[in-house]
Write a structure and sequence with these properties.
The protein is α+β, with helices and mostly antiparallel strands. Among the domains are: 1-141, Jelly Rolls; 162-219; 345-510, PH-domain like (Roll). 46% of the residues lie in helices and 25% in strands. The chain has 14 helices and 23 strands. It has helices at residues 5-14, 23-32, 112-121, 123-141, 161-188, 197-219, 260-265, 287-321, 345-353, 370-395, 406-433, 473-479, 501-543, 545-548, and strands spanning 34-38, 43-45, 53-59, 62-68, 71-78, 83-84, 98-101, 105-111, 153-157, 222-226, 229-236, 240-247, 253-257, 267-273, 278-285, 357-360, 363-367, 435-438, 442-448, 454-460, 464-472, 481-488, 491-499. The strands form 5 sheets. The protein has a 7-stranded antiparallel beta sheet with strand order 9-10-11-12-21-22-23, sandwiched between helices. A hairpin with a 2-residue loop joins β16 (357-360) and β17 (363-367). α3 (112-121) crosses α4. The chain is flat.
Length: 559
């Protein structure tokens, strides 16, 4: 099957891998290309086969999947302009996924030998392919539970490897400084020198644990680009967790920030601007290539929406000109939820008993975590325990030596007990009155004091610019609660100390996307109906010119 040369070059320029190449380099790539056609349902390659070719899609769609307990687990849906078959890059490992054409598909192919030749001749292409290969294998290992339905990772990366090496320098120097005296003591075999051996050994183990923690901490930070959003994940083991994200359609602009040292080594920061704040993808290798990929995703998303809109306009015109009735409006459907971060069973049970989340009639209500109730009521609870203990001891006759009678002691303890219970229930009601709600159109923050101040803030979901959450300290990580920050205009809404903040963030993101899609769909439908009315009226005027001018006033009658 032949494709026009100019069309091939246009496709190459639209793919982020080849955007930085000049005409001569594009000519080299074009010389090695082969075009293959696949029917819907045809398997392109299977897991375990030799990785002998790399593909990028010209038309159609390809589903990448991994066999899992007899089922096909979706990894990615490859669309026009995307690449697949990354196993053929670099180490030439066997295929780790299955690739299946879901529609009639045309894909350009580069054989493994041709990839080697092109990489040797075009260093920029070699860097881009290496970055793509690392992202592919990392995406197979890291499968975030917050991904939505039909949302796939297009790029994922940790910070530049140099920052891991720099942070390992401290424990490495300590380990080196400990190994020398340990080896010397062992070699001399002098009993009088053995006393510091246990201390040095413990210090060595501590240094090894320090190095392991540094490596774990580095591996927990990710920059992710999906087909819907850009996400920055930052975790400090046992202390802190944060995830910032912005929908692709909410990005106003982006830039790369580097210095001379960063340019020498090949890393930089990508700063993404939104209406009220920035999100930073920090210390990435080859940020220029990552930025090209992100921009390609933005352009593709825009073109896909425009294509859908044109298709809907054609359908509306066809119905109107054929005299068919307009379809009934479809009710809004709640988005399919993605897998959540599964808490420990005991944590989940307590959360259910304390009702930290409730969904009713499309409105989701969150309460602060039960641990915050524990923080509030520990003192009145301690007082109640003391009162009950005092009553038991009084009935046992342990306070007979006191000048007060047992009846007076019981009356005092009863009064203290009633005061402690009132205090306890006041704190409970105060805790319960703080609610955070997500409706189909609004984000609501309710704050109410028992028998006192009541404060309510609300803002439209459509104005959300960015969403992030943070979990601080070992208690927050262990019990899975944190604070969600929602930037809406010039205001920051906070859902404080909510259970499973990653799920709250996902819920907000899904509601934002659902509202935005609904608004755009309604606007498009109104525009389509208006255009259809105009064209329908025009056709009537053409077919019946006498009728079209029947009520038109004569020029002499005006004025």
């Amino acid at each position: 099957m032949k494709v026009d040369r100019s069309e091939v070059f246009e496709r190459l320029r639209s793919i982020h891998l080849f955007r930085a190449l000049n005409e001569q380099q594009l000519e080299q790539v074009y010389y090695h290309l082969e075009l293959y056609a696949f029917e819907a349902g045809q398997r392109i390659y299977e897991q375990g086969q030799a990785a002998d070719a790399f593909y990028f899609l010209h038309s159609g769609r390809v589903l990448l999947s991994v066999p899992d307990d007899g089922r096909e687990h979706e990894v990615a849906l490859v669309e026009v302009g995307d690449t697949f078959g990354e196993e053929a890059l670099g180490a030439r490992n066997a295929r780790t996924t299955n690739a299946t054409a879901t529609t009639r598909t045309m894909a350009f192919c580069l054989a493994a030998e041709d990839l080697d030749e092109l990489s040797a001749e075009i260093p920029d292409l070699a860097d881009a392919l290496s970055l793509l290969e690392k992202s592919f294998y990392l995406s197979l290992k890291v499968r975030p539970r917050w991904l939505g339905q039909r949302e796939y990772i297009r790029f994922i990366s940790r910070r530049h490897l140099m920052f891991l090496l720099l942070r390992l320098l401290g424990p490495a120097l300590v380990i080196f400084g400990l190994v020398l005296p340990l080896g010397l003591i062992w070699r001399l075999d002098a009993p009088q020198l053995l006393w510091p051996f246990p201390l040095l050994a413990m210090a060595l183990l501590g240094s090894l644990a320090w190095a392991a923690w540094v490596a774990l901490d580095w591996s927990n930070d990710y920059s992710i680009i999906t087909n819907s959003r850009v996400v920055s994940v930052e975790k400090v083991a046992l202390l802190y967790e944060s995830r910032q994200e912005v929908p692709l359609e909410a990005i106003l602009g982006s830039e790369i920030r580097t210095d001379q040292w960063a340019r020498w080594i090949g890393y930089g920061d990508i700063v993404i601007r939104t209406y009220t704040g920035n999100i930073q993808l920090s210390k990435l290798a080859r940020p220029d290539l990552v930025l090209q990929l992100m921009e390609a995703q933005r352009v593709r998303a825009t073109r896909a929406k425009e294509s859908v809109r044109q298709s809907e306009i054609r359908s509306a015109l066809h119905r109107r000109l054929a005299g068919l009735p307009d379809p009934a409006p479809q009710p809004a459907r709640r988005p399919v939820t993605a897998d959540q971060d599964d808490p420990h069973p005991i944590v989940g049970l307590w959360s259910h008993l304390f009702r930290l989340r409730q969904e009713e009639n499309g409105m989701v209500t969150y309460w602060t975590h039960w641990w915050m109730l524990v923080v509030r009521v520990w003192l009145p609870t301690l007082l109640l325990v003391g009162v009950i203990t005092g009553m038991i001891l009084t009935l046992a006759g342990r306070f007979d030596e006191l000048p007060l009678t047992p009846l007076n002691i019981m009356m005092i303890l009863t009064a203290l007990g009633m005061l402690a219970m009132g205090w306890w229930f006041y704190q409970y009601i105060d805790w319960r009155n703080d609610r955070y709600q997500i409706t189909g159109e609004q984000v609501v923050d309710l704050y109410k004091r028992p028998l006192g101040l009541e404060h309510k803030r609300a803002a439209p979901i459509r104005n959300i610019q960015s969403i992030e959450y943070k979990r601080h300290g070992p208690i927050g990580l262990l019990l899975n609660f944190g604070t969600v920050y929602i930037r809406i205009g010039d205001t920051v809404f906070t859902f404080n100390h909510v259970f499973n903040p990653s799920e709250v963030q996902r819920e907000l993101f899904q509601r934002f996307m659902q509202y935005g899609l609904g608004e755009k769909q309604r606007d498009q439908e109104r525009q389509e109906m208006s255009i259809a009315d105009w064209i329908h009226t025009y056709h009537q005027m053409i077919e019946n010119p006498a009728d079209s001018g029947r009520n038109r006033p004569n020029r002499r009658d005006i004025g």
